[in-house]
Amino acid sequence: MQTLTATNFKFPQQTKVYNGKVRDVYFVGDKIVMVATDRISAFDVILPKGIPYKGQILNQIASIFLDATADICPNWKLASPDPMVTIGVVCKGFPVEMIVRGYLCGSAWRAYKSGVRKICGVKLPDGMRENQKFPTPIITPTTKAEIGEHDEDISKDEIIAKGLVSAEEYAILERYTLALFQRGTEIAAQRGLILVDTKYEFGTHNGTIYLMDEIHTPDSSRYFYAEGYEERFAKGEPQKQLSKEFVREWLMSNGFQGREGEQVPEMTDEIVEGISTRYIELFEQITGEKFQKTDTKQLEQRIEQNILNFLKSNN
Description:
By secondary structure, the chain is of the alpha+beta class.
């Protein structure tokens, strides 16, 4: 089965290419072409094998949620001419990611368990337990890292003091973040899921703040199954979740957290297939639709042709 782990397209009016951790972004004229590859990353490290259908899953979930939240704030999407591609307007991104958490888990729980009581300037009370719901969602921003670098926690006050985002702009980002999270929470609840935490990226286009990149995908979000949450929480048992956290847990159990000198454990065919299956499960659970696997033969040729067809008809 073919996976797409790298692209090398050349489009008319193409000015530059940015290779992210899991996406290849082409700047073509006044548009941005984002190709969701099958690469997977964890602990800011790109893992050595691609995951079948991951790019299609991420792109299609993000496309659905961009459409479902367009009334909250403007977003960059113009069209999705291929299952693995979204084309949109070019935005100048803010150098921060807006992470919003409804529950204490993941890296926030690991920090809390070690004794930390303030995360990104947000004070947390004593006595909380893993997977406990916050009274209201909290925003814990990070810096936006380049490839090979790690995202760093940062507070609202530090962001404004360093001039990364103005106070006026940050107020808008904060409002959009909480409104988007609320909408995502409502949609997840309709599907029997809890949206636990997620991240949003924003930028400006013609002086207006736009939502960028993907939203509410398993790469950018964590979901619990709603059924059984209270019982498992009361017993202190792990939650049944749909997210990329299981990949991180597998890596940690094999001695890898992205630190210097650590080696990524072997990604066997069984591991790769298992990750792909979990991504498909989330797609079907969150969208309520049966996942339609696309033909993986000649992936690059298909994607390139679909992009060219769109660009030619929308010059």
